Amino acid sequence: MNDIERQVLEIIGEDVESPDVFTAGTDAFDHLRAAVNDGIQELCALTGTYTQTYHLTMLDDRQFYRVFSQTDYFGYPVEVWDRTLHYKLDQTALPSVSDASGYGLDASGPPTFYGQLGQDVLWFWPFGGNGGRVLEIRAVMIPREYTEDTDPLRVRGNHLRAAAHFAASEMFAARGDARRATEHIGKYLETAGLMSLQAQYAERMYAQPRGSWRWSAR
Amino acid sequence: MKWPAIETRLRKMLRDPEGTLYTSDELMRHWNDAQAELQQNVRILEHVEAHRYPPLYDWVITHYWEDPRTAGDVYQWGTEWVGQNARVTYPWEPGYLNEDSSPPDDGTRWTHAWETLHCTSADYVPIPLHARFEKMKFIAWDYDEILPTTEKELSIQDRWYRSATGQVLNYWRPDNYHNQLVLYPHPGSPVIQTLPEPYDVLVAATGEAGVISSDDDELDRGDTGLAIDILDMDDALFVVYEPIPVPVEGLHSEVDWPDWMCRFVLYGVCERAFGADTDTFQPTLRDYWGMRKQLGVAALQRFKRGRLKDRQYIIGHDSWSRHSRSRLRMPQGYPASWP
Fold first, then answer.
1. For residues A82 and B288, what is the distance between their CA atoms, to the nearest angstrom?
2. ipTM given for this complex
3. Were A166 and a residue from A188, B56, B127, B283 both cysteine, which residue would form a disulfide, CB within 3.0 to 4.6 Å?
4. Chain A, window 34-63: residues with a beta carbon less than 8 angstroms from a chain B beta carbon
């Protein structure tokens, strides 16, 4: 049991030292761990705080590459660096390249532009004659599910506590307590700084008291 | 992720771990409904494929009633002569029975699409799209982007549009039901692509050439761990589209969503299960999971925007002039200078 799981048990009122339901290896504990994993993955996907470097070796005359990570799920690239020529590639869209290049998508030379299609397909332009070129892709990743107590957790600080509230919310929902489940999903959003996802926070208006607009200050 | 793993998780969320309240069929129906809703709201699934030309159909049938007895891509040749409930190859055939004449014709009728390589086709060649095709995002023929148009527009511009050949400029779709597209004009001199065996894809990862793939997950990518499954656009149709999520139909079904996104669909399933007007109706939990579903949509939309984090938008200026190579400089300290 790791720190987040202990915190969740405390929130839902379980005995952390000798839990009667959430003992390791039980279905209940698996459900708890899955909820914590969900929270961590959502935080990484939304905030982009966890990045990894992905080395892509280019092949001759290949424009599209499906990327895959053994340890994470691929999110999106935030920087693509040509290790051979020491420069950064610009991100754009396929129609932009096709319209502006005058040569369609077919061109030879070192790549200067890239883009993403779907979850895991990256394309580069130009692409001809690049066999052996190495691109260093720094990408936001979504960590795969941890399974052991000692596995590293890919979030830190407030996000650890936010993940605990996320999991606690699901535990209360599984008990049928929708009110407390809602309460803790709110705490999750506040702790992680994601209040804009909740409509009532995003649409709240703040203004300086000024003339007839005084009423809107609340 | 396979359905049994999802169902196990789902039953815990639904407070029915033993499976006494909800049947598997019921949960599958809720899943299929919820995933369609999520994809419509977020449009996050995208497929990338290459199709060869002329298209390869698995079956060519004569009568429409043969369709349910086939599987795969089906082409129904000829034209339905509704007056006699018969199928005709040439348009003069119906008249031929009434008049003893030899009406002229305007080209060759074909049964299999590859025959168009050896004849002057009298009509357009429909290309089947993926069964789960929903919406086109980008399409190119032999590296050149082609633009959508309508049959009406083409007929105004070119009255011989059905049989014109040349450099492909546009595509159009006859209707939605048949799930096909047509190139305009037909490719002048297409080259037949060879479809690879799955192991060829592995070969490609080592640098061999010539891979065109129109299917995902043909092999265990974990074996190689890096970029494989490479799409080739030479003399092929390159298509990026939004798919209809694959429906779950049984224990063997594998879902379309990346593992970490499955739970966003589960929220919608829980909302539906708790909201059904049965003994399991629980309005507070229905509302809770409904709220989670809405949060999930907002979360995925935010994640989708994140993909553009590295993109630079310049308004009112030609962004193309900002070229990466203009920033190339010689390495610092070169050439070597001595004090």
1. 47
2. 0.87
3. A188
4. 34, 38, 41-42, 45-46, 48, 56-57, 59-63
